């Protein structure tokens, strides 16, 4: 799968959010809450597609967060 | 268009500053009893009693000097004739201000002054606005008995400053200018050189004004009682004949001004003594740099073009509006409603911003609206909301006068917020301690009569590490204010934070190598901050514009809560906002996830209120931020944008990416004063209004809502909000307002923190600090006094995560950017004024060792390259910057500073990481951009 600039940026943003969450407890839930507050539905949908096709580009916490949104 | 409002302006000069004592004394002035605070001068008491004692060296913005001897009075029971300006009132004192003896003395003093003064009153530029002339009349001077002798009538003029003239022949050596420079501005550029008859005002060591340390704030000009120091505009145009109170449109200090005009021609801007933010002071930009408003580059007619490579075509307003609306509708039909969006401007009024975000949400039916605060203080919004419950600074500016310790982090107040910088310097001269956390040695670190107690000269990108280390020391040394935490804060979050911050990984010793700050220096600073009675933090974009900008804001909030430095005068967390209305633009619902008053779009109660009043269904999902919109444009999903007063092609990071995104759009609408870098990609140009033409409000960094009153009519014929409403109407949604006041009424109806605000109230009270509502009808100077907005203060753990942007062998230096005094933001305004005399180009500051290693000499052209791009500018070798770090500004499009900044951003808000870019420099030929 190739990514456009938008998707590359989403990958970076998601991993960065995961790495900066204040507490290390239940990071996926914190990521979900953050994305629901600040990300548009298409951005969340794009991230889901990325997770489905190239999971290796996303951190475990991001992948868990994407799974929680299903 | 409302008729310009001219309101009563209080000109009375009470002679000496107010005394601050809470006890009062009663004195009798010419038999009239008057109660005044203890310590009040006789001169001020007399003024308050309605008697103006003649004066020349006294003015109520300066401490009494007692040199002119014109204000002499008689005090019952005392010998002699003391100066009323330097003599404090005492209980029961009986004062005579008018007696034959006083009349004779005053006339004699005036006669001496006039004997060495040009007798050219009728042709003098200050005729009718000269205190010397007034006083000659007041004392009844009719002739001068002294024969012609030695005098200063041939003393020369200094016209070196572009804005004011110094005519030494008219100087009476009253020292008001010298004292204004010292007491009000705090620069100490002026002195009285020599003694006796040879005494004269001297900038620095008898330099010309332009060559001296003078920062051109104009305080000396304002203080001068004669035509000695005078605005060149007054000399050229004559004394003003009418006045309008309004608010400066430069930085977030939000100074109040009196615009003085002859007809519709602005003659000068005089800072308003009653101004809550500035108390009669100003900087070079606010007082003098307003000529851009009538610059020949101003675009005052709408323009359209089919493609960005075709010529602009001037059209009438209806055609421009129809053109934009047709394009936007076509985009919606082809690509969907989320293919459009808008950006609001922190340079515009609350009312103008509000209607743009309303147009986007209600008319375009998308939440794709963002504001230029995205690239400056969005982390402040996030961080302070998480910890305190709302996105705002906690104090008023006057609070700094009660601070015992001032911690300045990533800010340069004397350059970027100069009027507040002067207020801060006054407090520091009084003895408050100063901690500076900044890679650069900013002026505050060491300036006349000021020396920082600690300068934590950290590596760019390590803010969180340093503040964590400070907090570690405070927590482990037992300096926590336990009572405050237990009473005011969420204790569970505090306990978690205490466990985290006490870990060895957060110790100064562990973080010293990463941050570049010695552990001992951090321990000393922690003790200084924690052990003072009142400690206040002031911060700027050096905090927010990092990959951990939001984390850093929360780390500072933790520090303040842990030490109980919140909720009273002299303490707090204070963002110094970059532009005039950053606070207001954020308050007005400019962020894609929030309505006005910081209520999330998914909040059903809030959404129902807006839906009911706006008469349209609103989306409950957040829209795109600016970087998301630009990314989506490059992907082909975002096709049109309304850009209000924001030059994103110059100001936003990674300029090539911004240009590519704008190029990919089908319709870019720019509403601005001038064609700029962004308008190169625009299809519609809607001429905007300068602050002199606006009617509305700005909200400054201390949440102070100030009126902006129209000084002259809009050059384009329409107010900006009228243009936005016209576009909304053409898109099918009517926004019907008769004037800007009605927009504020709607804001107040929908925004709980603005519930009590109206133009009438602002006209009555001068200004109001929000929250202003039923609970706080007179506004709220200090926030979180009894409880935090969110209830209990929330501690947040703040692990340090290094930025991805690191120096490498290829890019071994770290570039950080900032602003200088004479220029502002992208320079659209200041570059079109004489301020260019101080800063005609962006320059790269570099440490001597780094320059020598690369064979670069001072003034050389160099190439600066990062992984994003490269540009050229001149180098300046400076010891203000440590080895390994370089610094520049971004005021000039020709230097293209943001060509080299990257698209790294804050993890929570996407605020760009302007402050850390790995670069390399090398000597370059003079065949450079801008040559």
Question: Would you identify the regions of chain B where 5 or more consecutive residues have pLDDT less than 50?
Answer: 1-9, 927-931
Helix-strand category of chain B: alpha/beta
Return residue spans of chain A where pLDDT drops below 50 for at least 5 consecutive residues.
Answer: none
Instruction: Quickly count the helices of chain B.
Output: 28
**Mean residue pLDDT of chain A:** 92
How many domains comprise the coordinates of chain B? 5
Biggest sheet layout of chain A: none
List keywords for this structure.
heterodimer; A: 70 residues; mainly alpha; 71% helix; 0% strand; globular; B: 931 residues; Ubiquitin-like (UB roll); Alpha-Beta Plaits; Rossmann fold; 5 domains; 7-stranded mixed β-sheet; 6-stranded mixed barrel; 28 helices; 37 strands; 28% helix; 17% strand; disordered C terminus
Describe the model.
The complex is a heterodimer of chains A (70) and B (931). By secondary structure, chain A is mostly helical. Chain A is 71% helix and 0% strand. Chain A has one domain (5-19, 26-68). Chain A has helices at residues 5-20, 27-38, 41-53, 60-68. The radius of gyration of chain A is 11 Å and the shape is globular. The model of chain A has no long low-confidence stretch (mean pLDDT 92). Chain B is α/β, with parallel strands linked by helices. In chain B, 28% of the residues lie in helices and 17% in strands. Chain B contains 28 helices and 37 strands. In chain B, a hairpin with a 2-residue loop joins strand 1 and strand 2 (32-37). Classes of the chains: A mainly alpha (70), B alpha/beta (931). The interface between A and B is medium-sized, with 21 and 33 residues.
Overview in brief:
Chain A has 70 residues and is an all-alpha fold.
